[in-house]
Amino acid sequence: MTAWSLVRFVHVVGAVMWLGGQLTVSALVLPVARRRLDEAARADLMRTLGRRLGIATVVAFVPLQVATGVLLAAHKGVTWASLADPGYGRLLAGKLTAFVLVMLAAGLHGWANGAGRPALARALAVSSLLGSLVVVLLATALPVS
Amino acid sequence: MTRSSDVDRAGLLGGLALGAVMLVVALVVAFGGGAPPGPQTLAVRAGDGPRVVEVTLVGMRITPSVVEVPSGTHLVLEVTNEDGMQHDLAFASGPRTPMLGGGASATLDLGVVTTDLDGWCTVPGHRAAGMTMRVVATGGDGPDVAGGEVPDDGAAGAHHGAAASGGGLALDPHAEPGPDWRPYDPHLRPAPGGTEHRVRIAVTDEVVEVAPGIRQTMWAFNGTVPGPTLRGAVGDLFTVTFVNEASTGHGIDFHAGSLAPDEPMRTLDPGEELTYQFVARGSGAWLYHCSTMPMALHVANGMFGAVIVDPPNLPPADTELVLVQSELYLAAPDGTADEAALVAERPTAVVFNGYADQYVHAPIEVRVGERVRIWLVDAGPQRSTSFHVVGGQFDTVFKEGAYLLRPGNPEQGLAQALDLAPGQGGFVELVLPEPGRYPFVDHAMVDGERGARGLLVAVP
What we know:
The complex is a heterodimer.
Chain A: H1 3-36, H2 39-76, H3 88-114, H4 118-141
Chain B: H1 2-31, E1 41-43, E2 51-58, E3 61-63, E4 66-70, E5 73-81, E6 90-91, E7 105-113, E8 117-120, E9 132-138, H2 142-145, H3 153-164, E10 196-211, E11 214-221, E12 230-233, E13 237-244, E14 253-254, E15 273-279, E16 284-289, H4 295-300, E17 304-310, E18 319-328, H5 339-343, E19 349-352, H6 358-361, E20 362-367, E21 371-380, E22 385-389, E23 396-399, E24 402-405, E25 418-420, E26 425-431, E27 436-442, H7 445-448, E28 453-459
Parallel strand pairs in B: 1-4, 2-5, 4-9, 10-13, 12-17, 18-21, 20-28
Antiparallel strand pairs in B: 2-3, 5-7, 6-8, 8-9, 10-11, 13-15, 14-16, 16-17, 18-19, 21-26, 22-25, 22-27, 23-24, 23-26, 27-28
């Protein structure tokens, strides 16, 4: 148990909360809201939840994940050049690519909602969720040593 | 609500499609394209003026490893060392870069290429590890127009062969040590007081006598082979200032401590130093050695020593000795270890404390009836030992952290030899029963007879 355990802990917990937040909203709240609430109340609830998740993402999640991720990578000796190396470097590069795509999708999801494009907004939300799973998949695939 | 369910379906399908795209993109980045670089051949086309080729030195490889140029081409190499350690590039025909630190570059003009040229990194061991490249002259009558200036392959091969044959150096069983020779003191002093030990270990290039009449360039810790013996008790803190004052990169690895090797065992360029701190958590006779690749070569060049960590309540002995066994792969006089013989595992000599038949030439005197404890470490780099005292029997054997035998054991057992693989250590104790000369040997007899022997002389 070192300070690095703590950094890793924060990074993992951040990922858990981001993915968990999306899953909770999409898989738990949304179906229940559809059954229990009228359209106006539901839209209001979902908009509020979406905005709060978005604010938490921008204010806390992204800075924390980037900071802890950069620290962990630096501690492991990752350099820009080593991201091109097969194995750890390329897996990490793939994970970072997926992360950037997920953040793009999440951001566009907020925009699409505001712009009154529900089909696009929903597509972006689903892809953000799936992309997050890809990030986690590649994270677990990173060699330990 | 048809419209709403349409929106839902479209959104779901679109999201699945986008998610699949993310998966594919991430997987392509992670696994796609670009196989790891293997042997690379770069073909250079003829053209006006010098042709410039970029060459990188990294990871014990020179890339590209083969450059093909039409015979008669003026070839210039832009050489960059992208590694963390020092490299250079030298050609048998003469041109060579200066020693390049990490990130440094140099331009190497090979002139007009009319014949094949062999190049390699001259840092010891790197050529054997694969840091070679070849310039191939195509299309010309290369060897015919080579002239006398550029050695052909045969000459380059012969050059390598001379090194490989070790210059014909062999042990002379009748030779005597030189007048300046001083034996390595085998006596082990008690651990200094205190629970903290500070020591400075500097590695230098030293020409030392390693067998009667034979001097070699050794990479020595504090000027001796083996390096200084450290001693302490379980729980002691060792703080080692390690300084590289030699001409090539070196590192250090203490088996007596447990830590992440990344930083403390890294390779230091000449002039650098680091602090290596470890707590001796366990008793034993521990090896320390150079941590720079190829380690076999660095150890064969003398980069090893012992750390003795006493077991708690170690009974006192009258005489304590420390012997570190290692191999010598003799090269040309004053040279460093013969890499070809090393790779072939054909040592010229196997020695205790760095010198062939050392304690035959300088016997160790002990008293009849006193308890002699002999600490042993096998530094290798490759050969095990079976330590035996002719005419003696061990009543105590401690190997790799445990007593295998102690006096008063119910079996009334005694032992004849302590076997250690490279990188292991232990001690034996015995009492010599009467005056006389008791040889001690590596009972792997071929090794014993090529230098791994000495004499205990018991006096009343």
